[in-house]
Amino acid sequence: MGVFEGQFPQWVYLIGYNTISALLWTFVFSRAAVTALTDDLDEVYPALRIWVLVAQSFAALDILHSIIGKKGLVHAPLLTTAVQVAGRCTVLWIVIEQYPSAALSPFYPWMVLAWSAADTVRYFYFATRLVGGHQYQNLTWLRYSAFYVLYPIGIASEVGVVYNAVCEAFGLGYDGHAWGYIAAATLYIPAT
Questions:
Q1: What is the pLDDT of residues 30-69, one digit of tens each?
Q2: Active-site residue 99, yes or no?
Q3: Distance CA 4, CA 130 (A)
Q4: Which residues contact 94 (CB under 8 A, 6 or more apart)?
Q5: DSSP state of 77
Q6: Would you give the distance in Å from CA 10 to the centre of its chain?
Q7: Catalytic residue among 151, 163, 174, 188
Q8: HSE on the CB side for 114, CA within 13 Å?
Q9: Where would you find the membrane-spanning parts of this chain (predicted)?
Q10: Are 102 and 164 in contact (CB under 8 A)?
Q11: What Å distances lie between residue 96 and 13, 49, 122, 154, 178, CA to CA?
């Protein structure tokens, strides 16, 4: 039963959660890649908006898992988990939903590709680790190596999306929004 000896309900739940998350992000990655390659980068946002919102919002459960982790569910640092999930959700639900044109730049597809590649690997890694406690060497290597490439692409793309929203907000006379996004990005980048 892997790392959850004697805790069958938690084990089944986490295998299910991680598998569903991995499959969601796999779908997002493959659809984003195909759309970007066959259509246009501008088509990634309309084609995937709902799927990215669902996949990333589902990841909010990671925060809950971290909170109850002290009781044996997962052992993930709460602050790191909360900052990453909240930062991504803020970019999606607050910045892009308010200024959708911010997602119609090359930054959005790169952000989605980086997030989905990283999270596909991460969630498959967790799911396979739970099944019998196995760690697959290639998946482990990919989990900890891809980060060095995907993290800078992801964070730079997030900043690019926010920058586009800031420009649009200033252009529309919503200076308060623009300065709020600048302040949030200034705090978020060092925290990640």
A1: 999 999 999 989 999 999 999 999 999 999 999 999 888 6
A2: no
A3: 8
A4: none
A5: -
A6: 23
A7: 151
A8: 19
A9: 12-34, 46-64, 76-95, 107-125, 146-166
A10: yes
A11: 32, 10, 25, 15, 13
The catalytic residue among 123, 158, 181, 188 is 158
Dist CA 16 CA 25 (whole Å): 14
**Residue type, position 94, single letter:** I
Q: Catalytic residue at 43?
A: no
> Is residue 138 within 8 Å of 7, Cβ to Cβ?
no
Q: Where are the alpha helices (DSSP H) in 131-146?
A: 137-145
* Global pTM exceeds 0.85: yes
CA 117 – CA 149 distance, rounded (Å): 11
> Half-sphere exposure (CA, 13 Å, Cβ side) for 104?
6
Residue 25, both tokens:
């992000």
Question: pLDDT (tens digit, 9 = 90+) per residue, 136-190?
Answer: 889 989 999 999 999 999 999 999 999 999 999 999 999 998 999 999 888 877 6
